[in-house]
Amino acid sequence: MRMDGRRTSGNVDDRRGQRGPGGKVIGGGIVGIIAVVLMTLFSGGGIGDIFSNLANSGQLSGLTPNAGYAEDYQPDAEDERLKEFASQILAGTEDVWTAEFRRQGWGEYECPKMVLFSGAVSSGCGNATSQTGPFYCSADKTVYIDLDFFKQMKQQIGADGDFAYAYVIAHEVGHHVQQQLGILGEAHEKMSRMSEKEANKISVRLELQADFFAGVWANLDNKMFNSLEPGDIQNAIDAASKIGDDYLQKKAYGREIPDSFNHGRSEQRVRWLSKGIKTGDVSQGDSFSPAYDSL
Predict the structure, then answer these.
(1) CB of 106 within 8 A of CB of 186?
(2) Which residues, including other chains, have CB under 8 Å from residue 43's CB and lie 6 or more apart?
(3) Do residues 164 and 235 lie in contact, with contact meaning Cβ atoms separated by under 8 Å?
(4) 207, 209, 211, 216 alpha-carbon torsion, rounded to 10°
(5) Per-residue three-class SS string for the chain
(6) Residue 152 contacts by C-beta under 8 Å, 6 or more apart in sequence?
(7) Is the N or the C terminus of the chain less surrounded, counting Cβ atoms within 10 Å?
(8) What is the spatial distance between Cα 250 and Cα 181, in angstroms, rounded to a whole number?
(9) Every domain of the chain and the residues it spans
(10) 179: Cα within 13 Å, side-chain hemisphere
């Protein structure tokens, strides 16, 4: 991505190196940890929802007490580059969604905050560790991310490139857009009254719409700043193809568990992200009206 000269956001709270909450970390060996990290990559709910989904789908393989998280944290040059990059991407989402809310007559866009942390963090939705993955907390309207996650994307699933990383941030901001529009709260209220199987279907619809909003952002950001370079879109599509529920479950367990899907199949995630990138048209992002099987 072309980021030279781009502004950084004033809504970033850098908590890297601060002592995290005492809490728990997910155990069960490296395979289990990788599976949990990947399956929670793009969570739009609270921390309680994340752990509930993990437990219900058999992905929690045990809890072990957490040791000191970030006392010895020392950022290197790449960490600092990623910090600036994440802040620039957040600023890009601020510019794009502020303009789009005004254009659509949705009122003023309230920019979310972003917390950068290392190891563990306390959020308005509860305590979390790096193993949770990036997440959006609607209670405090904040995106939380440990920048080491980007390194894990490259090492563990082969998803690399700045636009793939930008996709992660833009997806979480997409959940904030849903929150601003009342979509997220309404969906979570419905989910609280449903069976787990049916609630998972609503979760899939939320995640696919957040993918779409990430694509819309990419389209509009490129129009504003000429930010995309050859290969960028393919990097994001490659990442989306590797974080579908079907792909991850086959990788971790050798089989699919469709009733536990809460993010969508790989081909669905690629389709909705690609649709947003291609059209840049928020009016085409209704993931709630189509029949579930046709998403």
Answers:
(1) no
(2) 49, 50, 53, 132, 133, 134, 135, 136
(3) yes
(4) -160
(5) CCCCCCCCCCCEEECCCCCCCCCEEECCHHHHHHHHHHHCCCECCCHHHHHHHHHHCCCCCCEEECCCCCCCCCCCHHHHHHHHHHHHHHHHHHHHHHHHHHHHCCCCCCCCEEEECCCEEEECCEEEEHHHCCEEECCCCEEEECCHHHHHHHHHHCCCCHHHHHHHHHHHHHHHHHHHCCHHHHHHHHHCCCCHHHHHHHHHHHHHHHHHHHHHHHHHHHHHHCCCCCCHHHHHHHHHHCCCHHHHHHHHHCCCCHHHCCCCCHHHHHHHHHHHHHHCCHHHCCCCCCCHHHC
(6) 37
(7) C
(8) 35
(9) 12-294
(10) 21
Quick one: CA torsion of 171, 136, 162, 12, rounded to 10 degrees? 130
d(CA 81, CA 78): 5
| pLDDT, mean of residues 185-212 | 94
Average pLDDT over residues 149-176: 88
* Measured distance CA(232)–CA(20) in Å, rounded: 34
Question: Look-up: residue for tokens 């009342």?
Answer: 182
In this prediction, residue 156 has a pLDDT band, given cuts at 50, 70 and 90, of: confident
* pLDDT for 177 beyond 80: yes
Contact 156, 34 (CB under 8 A): yes
- Amino acid code (one letter) for 281: D
**Mean pLDDT along residues 9-16:** 96
Q: How far apart are CA 58 and CA 74, in angstroms?
A: 35
Q: Name the amino acid, one letter, at 220.
A: L
pTM: 0.83
Q: Is the pLDDT of residue 221 over 80?
A: yes
Query: What's the pLDDT tens digit per position in 88-135?
Result: 999 999 999 999 999 999 999 999 999 999 989 999 999 988 888 899
